Amino acid sequence: MVVCGLACWRCRWLLPLLLGLAIIMGIIALAGRGWLESESAPYVHQASLWESCTRGEDDLNWNCESLMDYGWGRAAAATYLVGFVILVICFALAVIAFSVEILRFNFVRGIGGLLFVVAAFQIIGLVIYPVKFAEDIPLTGDNMFSWAYGFGWASTVVVIGCAFFFCCLPNWEDEVLGNIKPTYYYSSPERAPYLN
């Protein structure tokens, strides 16, 4: 006998787990020095969300300049950081919401709304950075927006997906709480002759 049905109550920790993954990717983006890098040798440029570093072709030491001296640098860092802080708050609220036996679905939908705010802040920061960086910072050689910048976008994509799931979860309230009867399917007619 096979029981078919949505086992969401047992899988309820999947959404907070995804938010935790988005937080880890956000930490990598905030701490990583790979927002912009030289694409090929000689590697003469490297930048993070906070600073831009250059060096000569034969030099081993990086000369770093803070991006917080630029208005757009402060704006990009602030918007991404505000989005990250709200994301951490949403993660804590999601853990609390799914720990309670009686799930408050309007509370879950509110978390989804906050996640859309997180995505908006992060997207603003991720768009400001490359546009203004390319305008104001002199670049030498071939450069690319690299792995840490990619982690920032990956975090944002996960947040957008979770926001949709959190907003839509109340539509399946009965399935999540297990309030519907499961449908049983039998493998052979001999075991269930009354189905014929």
Can you give a write-up of this model?
- This protein has 5 helices and 7 strands; from the N terminus they run E-H-E-E-E-E-H-H-E-H-H-E.
- It is α+β, with helices and mostly antiparallel strands.
- It has one domain (18-171): Butyryl-CoA Dehydrogenase, subunit A, domain 3 (Up-down Bundle).
- The strands form 2 sheets. The chain has a 5-stranded antiparallel beta sheet with strand order 5-4-3-2-6. Strands 1-7 form a two-stranded antiparallel ribbon.
- Helix 3 (105-136) packs antiparallel against helix 4 (147-168).
- The longest helix has 32 residues, at 105-136.
- The radius of gyration is 24 Å and the shape is elongated.
- It holds the Pfam family PMP22_Claudin.
- Keywords: Apoptosis, Cell adhesion, Cell junction, Cell membrane, Cytoplasm, Membrane, Transmembrane, Transmembrane helix.
- Belongs to the TMEM47 family.
- It is found in: Cell junction, Desmosome; Cell membrane; Cytoplasm.
Please supply descriptive tags for the structure shown above.
single chain; 196 residues; Butyryl-CoA Dehydrogenase, subunit A, domain 3; five-stranded antiparallel sheet; 7 strands; 54% helix; elongated
Number of helices: 5
Helicity level, as a percent range?
A: 40-55%
What is the total number of structural domains? 1
In the CATH scheme, the class would be Mainly Alpha
Mean pLDDT: 81
Q: Cα-atom Rg, whole angstroms?
A: 24 Å
Q: Tell me about the biggest sheet?
A: 5 strands, antiparallel
Query: What spatial order of strands do you see in the largest sheet?
Result: 5-4-3-2-6
Coarse morphology? elongated
Task: List low-confidence stretches.
Answer: 1-8
- Please state roughly what percent of the residues sit in beta strands, choosing from under 5%, 5-15%, 15-25%, 25-35%, 35-45% or over 45%: 5-15%
CATH-level-2 architecture = Up-down Bundle
Structural class: alpha+beta
What is the ordering of alpha helices and beta strands? EHEEEEHHEHHE
Distance between the termini: 17 Å
Q: Provide the CATH topology.
A: Butyryl-CoA Dehydrogenase, subunit A, domain 3
In total, the number of strands is: 7
